[in-house]
Amino acid sequence: MAVKPASFAFGDTKFGTKVIKTVTVTNKQTRSVSLSKSLSGPNVSDFSFSGGTCTANLAAKTSCTILVTFTPGVLGSESATLTVAASPDANSPYFVAFSVAGTIPETVYPATLSYGTVSRSSSKTLKTTITNKSPFTISISSSISGGNAGDFTNTGGGTCGASLAGNLACTIAIKFKPTTTTLETSTLSVVVPEDPTSPHSVKLTGTGS
Which pTM was predicted? Predict the structure, then answer.
């Protein structure tokens, strides 16, 4: 028997998405074998069987597939193990290790706030939205940096606080009040400690007139 690959390493995976991996089981014997499969491990509830061609028996000199689906369910890294048992087979059972680098609970959209042309005697406010797609509370902080950071300010008029409960969204409101008549740019940095891909950068751009 051969069960390949022996492991799968997932990258950072967003809540609300599913990732399917294929495991191939090959019977190298000259007789059929009976098969069984199971999942175990710290995050077994986030892994499931979603199809494939393997049944309770595998004919001699043939192969079949097991499809395993991963759906993020916790914050941070995840892992589980697929066990494939075959009989008769002196080397059974076989193990396939699944590991997930980290889970991404939120999205930040849009990634650019374009203010266009704004009179220096007025101002314009735009918002970016943070959506927590996980059922867990996440922490949020933000800052503005760049050459024209002084002309872009967090008005506090958004709905985001220091934390955001699961399955909710909030906004960060950024006001642009130009002091020049040239193109101005800065960057809003959104930090979510529970997200391994944080911080998220939102480009701020506008021109004074």
Answer: 0.88
